[in-house]
Backbone:
């Protein structure tokens, strides 16, 4: 009888502990989606006339609330400068985890800024992957000045969508 009581209490304790356990990912699931990822190439003596101050706002279930009908390119001129920066938005790439869109700022035939205003951000796992992968992709793009960059391991789907939208933007910019 004593063994039965000990077994029941041990089983009850294990069940209570299992239901009371909280995973470390639970906080990430309730976190706000990350802001739009961007990076810029600092050029000596010149500043980019266009910046990407867009954030990813509220997104729901892997779909971004951004409009994908943005203009394909728009020019903005630097005050008093002969050269102008042109912002070009790549075509939205639909991936299995959500859309990816890349926006480039081109000045003097060089990519000076890369922004990713639309990307999968519906779950904590999306947040985790993209907060790691997108800055790497942006930096590699600025370094390579082309779409000839490596994909990020662990973010293959997002990397593929990024490269597709990046190539579209580069084509529109004539690079």
Residues:
């Amino acid at each position: 009888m004593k063994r039965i009581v000990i077994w029941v209490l041990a089983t009850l304790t294990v069940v209570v502990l299992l239901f009371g356990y909280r995973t470390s990912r639970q906080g990430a699931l309730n976190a706000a989606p990350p802001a739009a990822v961007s990076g810029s190439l600092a050029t000596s003596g010149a500043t980019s006339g266009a910046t990407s101050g867009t954030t990813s706002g509220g997104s729901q279930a892997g779909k971004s609330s951004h409009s994908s009908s943005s203009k394909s390119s728009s020019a903005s001129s630097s005050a008093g400068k002969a050269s102008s920066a042109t912002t070009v938005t790549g075509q939205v790439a639909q991936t299995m985890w959500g859309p990816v869109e890349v926006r480039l700022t081109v000045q003097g035939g060089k990519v000076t800024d890369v922004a990713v205003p639309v990307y999968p951000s519906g779950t904590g796992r999306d947040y985790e992957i993209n907060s790691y992968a997108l800055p790497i992709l942006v930096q590699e793009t600025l370094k390579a000045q082309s779409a000839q960059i490596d994909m990020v391991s662990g973010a293959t789907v997002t990397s593929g969508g990024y490269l597709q939208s990046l190539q579209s933007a580069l084509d529109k910019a004539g690079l």
